[in-house]
Amino acid sequence: MLRSQIASAARAARATTRGYASATVPPVSTASRSHEIVVIGGGTAGLAISHQLLRSGEFSSDDIALVDPAKWHNYQPGWTLVGGGLKTREELRRPLESLIHPKINFYNEGVRTFSPEENYIRLGNGDKINYDHLVVAPGVTLNFGSVKGLSEALAAPDSAVSTIYSYDSCANVFPSIEKLKEGNAIFTQPAGVIKCAGAPQKIMWLALDYWKKAGLYNPSQPTSSAINIAFATGTPTMFGVPKYNAKLEELRQERGVEGLFQHDLVAIEGKKATFARPDGAAKVTRDFDLLHVVPKMGPHAFVKESPLANEAGYVDVDDGTTRHKKFNNVWSAGDASSLPTSKTAAAITAEAPVLVQNLTRVLEGKEPDAVYDGYTSCPLLTEYGKVLLAEFKYGGAPKETFGKWLGIDQAIPRKEFYYLKKNFFPWVYYNSMVEGTWGGPKGWL
Ligand code: UQ1
Questions:
Q1: How many CA atoms, within 13 angstroms, populate the side-chain half-sphere of residue 29?
Q2: CA–CA distance from 409 to each of 185, 276, 419 (Å)?
Q3: Which of 125, 260, 376, 382 could form a cystine bridge with 413, CB 3.0-4.6 A?
Q4: Count of CB atoms within 10 A of residue 64's CB?
Q5: Do strands 284-287 and 140-143 pair parallel, antiparallel, or not at all (unpaired)?
Q6: Alpha helices (H) along 260-367
Q7: Where would I find the FAD/NAD(P)-binding domain in this sequence (predicted)?
Q8: Ligand 1 mutation pick, 202, 349, 401, 428, max ligand atoms within 8 A of CB
Q9: Ligand 1 center–CA 349 separation, angstroms
């Protein structure tokens, strides 16, 4: 059968199901609905994938459904800029519904359960949604409970504790940097997987630059400066990719930032922060006057506790095709997926076209042939006006877009990359990426 014939046969079958359902339940009920493709998540991955699917021209109204309980969609890569006083959180968000094409059926609901053996999901309101193919892209959740006292510290008025990782808190970061005139500033990063692994230090580099310009921090005499700066990370190094780590470690030493490696924040009590150490070593407690915290992150419970998850709780897909290892009609990309790469919007520019090509091929009765190579990127602000543009693939191998074109080394922070990060990426994100027309390093799709 031709692809269009398959689709119309499937539509006819679904129409029958719907008719039957409406004959047996009260007409107002939406108790059971069916779609050719159901996408879970209206974040970066969910929007890019749904709209790339729609643009393939193979789908009619309501063939694709998107499920997300959120009212707002945030451009999260911009929250570091909010923390640095360069943007407002309000200008970075849009009502989620306004970003979803009218031909896509939007369920503004959460997911209660997945039933991949029977090809349906159950929404938070109890409704059952059947699908032919399921794309799971709800992202990850922040575990504020991973640090004792964190939620209370973030909520306290005029708190010395803040984070760029949430809409609520990111607006407090810059005022707390501006307010600090002396004392210890500590910037943390947890052990384990987080989104945008560079962000915990981006905000530190901006704060350092701010205090330097304010005459409160002298990188060549850090101990006699009014402000002392420490980077306390649960990881063993500044960055997971050796090439960029070398540069960032050099900057840390040059700029007099104390490196507390394998220090994993576990508790905040008043103005004291406590860190767990590996191998049963005694905990370390430090006094702070400013604490920038990054909580631990992990899969949502409804994913982790589902048959779709791997041991770690992520949607268990093939590293190359993005197709589920057990359920052939389930796919995943973005932060919720098991794809072993760094979780960024940039990664999604490369994952989404692979997922979409493979899914549409399977609908045509063919085998998946597109392969994701693990591409991801971290535009790492190292000061106001400069960005180190880390770009790499699986195994931490650099894959530099501009290095290839212009013969430059992207480990060297540049002003051109700063303007990409500050102006171009947020612009192209809302003008193209969420609409399914942006392919990252490949340009417009
Ligand atoms: C990108 O496309 C993108 O999305 C808009 C980002 O924003 C979050 C990025 O950080 C990066 C690095 C890319 C990749 C694009 C190019 C041109 C390198």
A1: 16
A2: 31, 36, 17
A3: 382
A4: 26
A5: unpaired
A6: 301-304, 345-363
A7: 36-150
A8: 349
A9: 7
Cα angle 191, 246, 184; round to 5: 55
Q: Which residues of the chain have pLDDT under 50?
A: 1-8, 10-29
Report CA(439)–ligand 1 centroid distance (Å). Answer: 9
* Domains along the chain with CATH numbers: 2-139+300-369 (3.50.50.60), 143-297 (3.50.50.60)
Distance, CA of 77 to CA of 93 (rounded, Å): 11
Distance 80 CA to ligand 1 centre (A): 15
Per-residue pLDDT tens digits for 63-81: 999 999 999 999 999 999 9
CB-ligand 1 contact for 392 (6 Å cutoff): no
The pLDDT, as a whole number, for residue 327 is 98
Residue 100 has what pLDDT?
98
What does the pLDDT look like over 110-136, one tens digit per residue? Answer: 999 999 999 999 999 999 999 999 999
Q: Are 330 and 132 in contact (CB under 8 A)?
A: no
State how far the Cα of 100 lies from the Cα of 67, in Å rounded to an integer. 11
The pair of three-digit structure tokens given for residue 28, joined into one six-digit string: 């107002």
Is the shortest distance between the CB of 434 and ligand 1 below 6 Å? no
| pLDDT tens, residue by residue, 95-109 | 999 999 999 999 999
Q: Is the pTM of this model over 0.90?
A: yes
Our answer on whether the CB atom of 80 is closer than 6 Å to any ligand 1 atom is: no
Could you give the CA distance from residue 260 to residue 273 in angstroms, rounded to a whole number? 13
pLDDT for res 30? 53
**What local confidence, expressed as pLDDT, does residue 1 receive?**
37
